[in-house]
Amino acid sequence: MQIASSLLENAVNEFARLPGIGKKTALRLVLHLIKQSPEDVQRFSQAIDKMRKEVVFCTVCHNISDNTVCNICSNPLRKKETICVVENIRDVIAIESTQQYSGLYHVLGGIISPLDGIGPDQLTIESLITRVQQSAVSEIIFALSPNIQGDTTIYYIQKKLQPYPVTITTIARGISFGGELEYADELTLGRSLQNRMPVEKYVSH
Amino acid sequence: MQIASSLLENAVNEFARLPGIGKKTALRLVLHLIKQSPEDVQRFSQAIDKMRKEVVFCTVCHNISDNTVCNICSNPLRKKETICVVENIRDVIAIESTQQYSGLYHVLGGIISPLDGIGPDQLTIESLITRVQQSAVSEIIFALSPNIQGDTTIYYIQKKLQPYPVTITTIARGISFGGELEYADELTLGRSLQNRMPVEKYVSH
Fold first, then answer.
1. Which of B116, B151, B156, B201 has the fewest Cβ atoms within 10 angstroms?
2. With contacts defined as CB-CB under 8 Å, which chain A residues touch B31?
3. Nearest residue to B128 (alpha-carbon basis) of B203, B197, B48, B62
4. Do residue A178 and residue A166 come from a single domain?
């Protein structure tokens, strides 16, 4: 693709580096920006630059943050005795958007996966143990991916937490709401049969 | 969607303003940028900012350009006697990527469309007439959208060009290469029958 302006070409190439954005989409985005006012485009580019330079990770829960302690950890309305352990920042956002959880989080930064060379030391597991030791945590909820790596990570952390008086739970697995039985995979369907629940409990939710 | 960092939220909102980019995609792009080095992100944001501030339009053909005359108009290898008239910058890029055209361009900036309030005065038609008057142009090729507005624009410009000794052509319309006859629309198929061409001419191409 030949472009008459090297400034335009440069901007297109930079956009095309982003994941899932090809040259044609990049060109469409850049031509859209050309039509905007220079102030709007400056606000766009500054928001990105400022975000990358100033964003930090919360020293308590390792979530992304503007300050050393994030908005969630410093929020006095949040229940400090519950910690939800997740793999990454995106999971925090997914759970927050359900508006069903009012406790704190702990972002592991990944899950134990020896094949990818990720061991317990690369994750924030020690920091989680320290939180449990130092504050009055009564429940740890695991919200990790439902696969062998997720299960390994839960098992590893659970063993580490054995000395402490804390309830350990994991989010429920089962058939999705709106999901059709015949299209569910065997493992999910099998587990949902094993972990069947009393109807009264289900209805009360 | 609640995000723990207002810096992140700001960047996500700015990305989500772009056409075809929703909140989820914006978040994915921003989380990708966070993983890049600050220098890379700065290069990205500066390329966009610089492009918007410094890019100009070529005074000859109205294509996008770094200088007052664009790379195509100032290229001595380009055939100056042929001008291809297109609607917008994207069409120039599309034709350039075929590598089949070595003449110059003229970007109209739209097509005549009374319903959208676009008349001849809002387009660069006068500037095209001036180019034909002042330089030795022998052929004008119209590469406009195959619809009523495109045809109106061609008719209007053709009338304006009648006093000058210049050949006026339009790009061929017909069944696309790789297109199946049964899926072609009636208008295209009908026109391609009317404008049938000798097989020798077709094969020599």
1. B201
2. 89-90
3. B62
4. no
Residue B181 domain flag: yes
CB neighbours (10 Å) of residue B29?
Answer: 21
Which of B6, B27, B50 lies at the smallest CB-CB distance from A66? B6
Q: What strands lie across the sheet with A103-107, from one edge to the other?
A: A103-107, A79-86, A139-142, A167-170
- Contact assignment for A6 to B66 by CB distance below 8 Å: yes
* Contact with chain B for residue A31, Cβ under 8 A: yes
User: Within this chain, do residues B139 and B159 fall inside the same structural domain, yes or no?
Assistant: yes
Tokens coding B20: 């075809």
Domain of residue A204: give its range: 173-205
| pLDDT-derived band at B187, boundaries 50, 70, 90 | confident
| A47 contacts B14? CB cut-off 8 A | yes
ipTM confidence score: 0.76
Contact A97 B1 (CB under 8 A): yes
Q: What is the mean pLDDT of chain B?
A: 88
In a domain, A61, yes or no: no
Residue A71 forms part of a structural domain: no
B190 CA: distance to closest CA in chain A (Å): 32
Strand boundaries in B51-172, DSSP class E: 56-57, 64-65, 79-86, 103-107, 139-142, 167-170
> Quick check: B23 contacting A, CB < 8 Å?
no
* pLDDT given at position B30: 92
pLDDT band at A203 (very low <50, low <70, confident <90, very high): low
Query: Which domain CATH number covers B83?
Result: 3.40.1360.10
Count how many domains chain B has: 3
pTM for this predicted structure: 0.74
